[in-house]
Write a structure and sequence with these properties.
- By secondary structure, the protein is an alpha+beta fold.
- Helix content is 25%, strand content 19%.
- The chain has helices at 13-18, 55-69, 73-79, 94-102; strands spanning 36-38, 85-88, 110-115, 121-127, 130-137.
- The N and C termini lie far apart (70 Å).
- β4 (121-127) and β5 form a beta hairpin.
- Strands 1-5-4-3-2 form a five-stranded mixed beta sheet.
- It contains four helices and five strands; from the N terminus they run αβααβαβββ.
- The protein has a domain at 35-137.
- The longest helix has 15 residues, at 55-69.
C-alpha cells in the first residue's frame, strides 16, 4: 500500500480558538436565527419547578421546544406575539418577583414567556438569542391573565 495522506479538514484549531466572538451592537440581530436553549438555570423546586414533570409532560415539552427550533426568533416573537412575548418583571406575580430576588436574578428587566398550550408556559431570560430556561408554569401563575382560556 502506498503512502496515505491525512485529508486536510480546513479547520485550524489555533487560529479559531484565539478569535474573539463579534457581538452585535443591535440586540435584535438574533431575530433571524433559530432559537437555542440553556438549561443551567432551570428551577428544580417549588413554586415553578421542572421537578414536577412526569415523563409524558417532559416528552410534550421536548416536542414543543423542538418545534420552536424549526422557527426563527422573528416567527416566534413577532409573528406569534400574542402567544410568545416578553413580560416586564414588574407585571409578574409577587412570588415570581421574589424568586428572582432569591436566585440573584433581580437585575433582569423582562422575561420571555413561551406558550406551550392553553395555560402552560415556559419562562426564561433571553441573552443574545439564547433562552436561559427558568420556570415551567403549567397553570399560568407567573403572570396570570385576565383573558378567558389563557
Amino acid at each position: 500500500m502506498g503512502d496515505r495522506k491525512n485529508p486536510k479538514s480546513g479547520f485550524n484549531r489555533t487560529s479559531n480558538l484565539t478569535k474573539d466572538p463579534k457581538l452585535s451592537s443591535n440586540p435584535d440581530d438574533y431575530y433571524d436565527r433559530n432559537p437555542n436553549w440553556r438549561i443551567s438555570r432551570i428551577e428544580l423546586c417549588d413554586p415553578y419547578g421542572w421537578h414536577n414533570l412526569d415523563v409524558i409532560m417532559a416528552i410534550h415539552i421536548k416536542e414543543k421546544l423542538s418545534y420552536f427550533e424549526t422557527m426563527t426568533w422573528r416567527e416566534i416573537l413577532l409573528d406569534s406575539k400574542k402567544q410568545n412575548h416578553f413580560i416586564s418583571v414588574d407585571k409578574l406575580s409577587k412570588k415570581a418577583q421574589d424568586r428572582l430576588i432569591e436566585t440573584n436574578q433581580d437585575d433582569v428587566e423582562e422575561l420571555l414567556s413561551l406558550r406551550l398550550n392553553g395555560k402552560e408556559r415556559i419562562w426564561g431570560v433571553v441573552e443574545q438569542g439564547t433562552l436561559n430556561l427558568l420556570w415551567w408554569d403549567p397553570n399560568h401563575q407567573i403572570c396570570p391573565s385576565t383573558k378567558k382560556n389563557t
